[in-house]
Amino acid sequence: MLPKDFMLGAASAAYQVEGNNTHSDLWLMEQMPHTTFSEPSLDACDHYHRYEEDIRLAAAAGLNAYRFSIEWGRIEPEEGVFDEAEVEHYRDVIRCCRANGVEPVVTLHHFSSPIWLIRKGGWDAETTPADFERYVRHVMERLGGELSFVCTINEANMGLQIARIAERYAQQARAAAAAMAAASQAAEADGAVDESQVQMGLNLKKMMENQQLQKAENKEAFGTEDPQTFQSPRSRHSDEVVCEAHRRARAAIRELCPHVKVGLTLSLHDLQPVPGGEALAAAEWVDEFTHYLPVIEGDDFLGVQNYTRTRVGAEGDLPVPEGAEVTQMGYEFYPQALEHVLRAVAKEWTGDIIVTENGIGTDDDARRVAFIDEALAGVERCLDDGIPVKGYFYWSLMDNFEWQKGYSMRFGLIAFDRATQERSPKPSLAHLGSYVKKPLG
């Protein structure tokens, strides 16, 4: 049984649901002739205008919390220029949550960045932590008094995961180039890039193949052939830029709003070594988690985001086992992974934990229900063993724009018609809400 003050809700990201985030880097990237996006976001779910309906649907189903993000490009469309009307929009979203008995949990950066930031060097620039702090201060000075929980950065480790997969692809490409044409074709047909190892909708193979074609387009859009967006393969230097941005944001939040609990979120896999893969699995866990421990020391909570497991062999990550059930994203259907990750995290992090994302992309809502049941059963077992899990947010509240995969991946508890924007709650929404024993407050 979940505690009565347990936050049970769903999550979204502004860029994926609001629509028309024209001041953000990904909007420009969607428009490029050689874009890696399968389709443009356009109006998305029009959550920007329909948030009241969406929040009310969540509350009516019994959910008592909603994690959503604030779009930096809306708040600061030009460097140092703030749009107060957009600040007030997010105040309205927060107050709508409160009016419906839903705890708002705000994320200040969820993958997309202002165009001007990328033109300055993006997430490799020494100036970015200060720029992020300025934005955070502006938001918290105005909205912090109405918040209790803030995530600074979503999946701070994402760039390292992408770098690992990109390097694997590059190695395969070099090997193929050195082989005979027939061997090269066979290597390509074999599978090469396993995009399911990144917990985000990316077209990694297309990203790598389009690099040369995109250089001129990047130069025109961002002033550089190699823009350092948050999703770019990340160097150790870039990783430190992200970490410093979190430190400065946390300090600003503590100064301005000491009542607010602050943390960041990490994308974590249930790493399962097969014989011979133990050393590699351990190294991956350092990259994904433990090297961030000094960075998050003193945070009020850690946001854990998990979707599946990763089996690791002597040569690296292994494909999904033959015959296993897979989701639309190519992930193995493996809801048990969440419990495993929570237990692994708790061995080295003694603070509070919030499951800020966990979910499944599928058109079979019965499988979504089954996934939720198994995932929450694991959470309850962790709670029984004293692991301080304070909340669970299913990803996602509604079907949405799954980044480079477009609208083909359906994670939502609520479906929507792209032509009419009509909402249709799925049975899984009420099922998740049924776990709430007593509303917060």
UniProtKB/TrEMBL annotation:
Annotated Gene Ontology cellular components are: cytosol
Provide the GO biological process annotations: carbohydrate catabolic process
UniProt entry tagged with the keyword Transmembrane helix: no
In its UniProt record, a GO molecular function of this protein is: beta-glucosidase activity
Query: Which residues lie within the region annotated Disordered?
Result: 218-238
What are the UniProt keywords, alphabetically? Answer: Glycosidase, Hydrolase
Q: Which domain of life is it from?
A: Bacteria
Per the similarity annotation, which family is this?
Belongs to the glycosyl hydrolase 1 family.
Name of the featured protein: Glycoside hydrolase family 1
Q: Which organism is it from?
A: [Collinsella] massiliensis
Which lineage? Bacteria, Bacillati, Actinomycetota, Coriobacteriia, Coriobacteriales
